[in-house]
Structure formats: C-alpha cells, structure tokens
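On to our target:
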Amino acid sequence: MPETLLIIEDEKLLGSELQRHYRGLDYEVVWAQTYADAENKLVTGSIDPLVILSDLNLPDGNGLDLLESFTHRLPGSEWVFLTGYGDVPDSVRALQLGAFDFLTKPCPQQQLDMTVHSALRSARAQRRVLNEISDASEQFAVERFLGSSVIARETQQMLRQLSQVPYSALILTGETGTGKGLAARILHYNSERAAQPMVELNCSALPREMLESELFGHEAGAFTGAKGRHRGLMEQAQGGTLFLDEIGEMPLDLQAKLLKVVEDRRVRRLGGEREISVDIQIIAATNRNLQDEIREGRFRSDLYHRLSVFELRLPSLRERIDDLHDLVPTFVAEFNLKAGKKVSQISDQARQNMAAYGWPGNVRELRNVIERCVILSTSNQLPEQWLQLRADELSSTVDSDSSTSSAALSPTLSNSDSHLGLRFPTDGGMGLDDMVAEIIRAMLKRYDGNVTEVARVLKTTREKVRYRIEKYNIR
C-alpha cells in the first residue's frame, strides 16, 4: 500500500511539480492549496499522511498554526516546512512544536528528497512504536485483571485511577501469585509513560553484586570482569517505569543506594565519576509484610515511606473465590487455543472442588492447574483427576448443592460444635450477632490471632473478619 504524503502549497507550479515528482517515487500524494483545504482533509480523516510537506505562509493562514492544531491528533506523522523567508523565530517555533525540519526556498530537490525520506523513516518508526503500544495497551487493559466480585471491581477501579495520575513510586503488596506483575504492566501501559520502556528486575533472582551492577550500571574496570561500560536498568528505564519485583529481598546496603536515587533522581554507575539524571517512576512489589520487615530490621523504613506514595494490596483468590466464574473459562479458552483442545464442559464436582480449595498459589496456581487439565484432556470435559488439588487445602465441609463458596461469613451452626468447643442455646436465649461474635472469637483463638487463616477457613475476606472484630469489640 503506497505511503501518503500531504503537500500544502499555494504556488500552483511548485505544488503540481512536487506532486508529480513524489508520485513518480511511488508515494500516494495529496495536494492542498490552502490552509482551509488542508484542515478539512485532516479533520475528516480522509487521509493519514506519514509526512506533511507544508509551505509556511499560506493565503488564509500559517502552516505552524496548522501543526499546533494537529500535532496531538496525528501521532506518527512528521512535518517538514518550506518557506521563502528564513525567519529565525518561525524556525525556532517550528522545532519547538515538533517539526521534523524547516527548509528555506528555493531548496535543491536532492536536499528536499533526503529530508522527506528521513522524515518518512522517522514516521514509520513512530508508527511501529505506536502499534506496539496499542497492542500492549490492549493486552494489559484494566479489564485484564479478571473478576466481577466486589473486591475485584474495587481493585480494577484503583488500577484505573492510579494509571491516570503521575506518581514517583508505588508499592504493590499481596500473596505470591495474586497478579502483581500483571498489575504493574496495567499501570504502565495505561499511563502517560506507555510510549517509554518498562524495565523489570526481580530482586531475589540475582546475587548482591550482580543486582547492584544491573540496577545502577558500571564503568569499565569497576570490578573484576567489568570489561566495558554497562547502562544500568535505571538508565534503561529513562522516561518510563522501573518495576522492582520482590523488593523485600533487596540487601539493606542496596536499599540505601536506591533511596538516594529515588530522592535525588540521579544515579551514579559503579566506578563512575559523574551522576546521571533519570526520570522514572518506580513500581515495587512484594509478598512480604514490609511493616514486619521494618520491625525486624530487614527493610529500611525511610525507603518504605519514600516508595509508598501509593500502596495497593492485591487480594488473594480465597478472598474472591466467586471470581472462579470469570477466571476458569478464560484460562480454559486460552489453553484450548494453545493446545488445540476443545474443552467446554466442567462438571459440578470439579467446580465444587475448585471452590472449596484454599489456592495457596492464588491465580498463578489456578492457571497452572487449568493448563494441566486442558493439555491432558481427551474429550470436551475438564478432567477432574488432573486437578490434583492438595487434600490439606480442601475444605472439609463442602455444600454439595453449591458450585461456589459463599463470599459472606456464614459458618454452619449447630447445638454443639465439638471441633471448636462451642455450644449455642436453641431456646432463643442467644442472638445471631452473639453467636457470630463467639465463632470469630473461638476461631481467632484456635489460629493464634491469624486473621488470614480465619478468613480462609470461614471462606470470607480478611476485611470482613476485621470488620466483625471491631463490630463486636473482640480483643
């Protein structure tokens, strides 16, 4: 398909000659003789030019005003200006507005061709980047954090809000497998920095010395084996996002160096003599409780406070077990496509088992389980035998008539629960609130105050357990 070149030129002889010349070079050429004509063609979207070759002074307007009006509406297009007057202020304004070049008439055809061809190469490169960004934005749309439960929708809303505001740093917390990596990509590819790089580093994957070199970079001879200069990941993320996964694994001395970079926005390579300015936003992620790490002296409180401009906790799968309705079919469809399978049926027993399971590995574990089942399937039925869910993570009380566990706090009550040692009167002498309070109190005692474990056993969320702790003033 020919690439489009828009020529805006009021001189008929020059305009027709330029049109003839570039058509001879296999370009699709559109010629507009006035400001209004060019504006109409661009507004209606009838053309999508890679390069706009425009006269500066038109009979009904100024080419620079046209550039200023359309520069944000035509991403991936380059502007080249021709003028019979070599006015310095105009050339300065043109470059400030993002024009590719500013040439003075008469311009030799060879020079003009070189400029136009360079502008075309630049525009093609920009279009490729924009297409990649568009693909990534679609792949990592907020809706890719799947789930229709209340807590999933709240998380989606927070991701949507955070991706639209500028921030210097942010911390993602949550158990392993909850989707912190996905959340980081959603935040980056839906932000104003989406056109810039997203650079990732797992702080637990490298030994201390390599971690320091990868993060900050090094000069030749900085240490044994450093044969050349290496730009650190902070430099490589310039203008974009640095994602530091498992930040809680970073050694304390490197935490101090990271803090200085975050505060000063300047980095010095190992063995380097000068500091380099960096413009990045940092997303840190951890499955550890950083407050506990601070109390134990394993994480710097000043770094924590500097990184936690925002802190977003991603819920465990146990807290949003109803989202299996959204997650399981999505994963089945994904692996059907990859493995060439046609799994379309899931038995009630398989649904009950998945709903009753504790999912210690969260969504990542669920995805792996579904992948195994689809790959090993021999029919359109999801094979229950390949679920292989750990018996110690399966609830001992599964309602055979339900396909998902309730998100509400609804333990089974009886006259005598020997498991917890509870006895409730059946004569109306004890209200429901008192019974629930007693159950919460007994469960907290049984699990040594571990709210997460209590929530898991009762098939509810930690927030709901904490709400009842406060409501019933349980100490």
Summary: The radius of gyration is 31 Å. Residues 109-139 form the longest helix (31 residues). Confidence is low (pLDDT under 50) at residues 396-419.
